[in-house]
Amino acid sequence: RGKDEKYRVWMPKLRVAKEYKDKRKSIDDMERNIFKFRKNSEEKSKKMDEEEKLFRETFMYHKEIRVLATATAERSVPSQRRADLPLTAGEQLDVIDTVQGHALICRNAQGRYGYVLVEHLNFR
């Protein structure tokens, strides 16, 4: 034998469980489908733009849309009018503007805008 073979250590070939191979393949497939995510985000941004346009027409809001604060809905409230924003308990809302009285203009995660009463919100 040569010098190199004398110090070679024999290592057993480890067998990989079939479940692990399948999981690894699915992770590789997810990494390859990056473009589908981008397509969905483009569709979502188009929908948000449409909602913003509808909001500006409905509320005659010509100022810049800035988030003043974030709030969570304390309870579920159905909308009484078209201008009201329906709420579900625990939903995160962005406060856009304050209006006279106890109403705020808010935006939900789907991009819809509407009036919400202050009593239904928690500002923590």
Automatic annotation (TrEMBL):
Domain Helically-extended SH3: 55-121
GO aspect biological process, one term: integrin-mediated signaling pathway
Bilayer-spanning residue ranges: none
Keyword Phosphoprotein: yes
A Pfam family reported for this protein in Swiss-Prot or TrEMBL: hSH3
GO CC annotations on file: plasma membrane
Superkingdom in the source lineage: Eukaryota
SUPFAM superfamilies in the record: SH3-domain
InterPro entries (alphabetical): FYB1/2-like, hSH3, SH3-like_dom_sf
Keywords recorded for this protein, A-Z: Phosphoprotein
This protein's name: FYB2 protein
Species this chain originates from: Hippolais icterina (icterine warbler)
Protein encoded by which gene: Fyb2
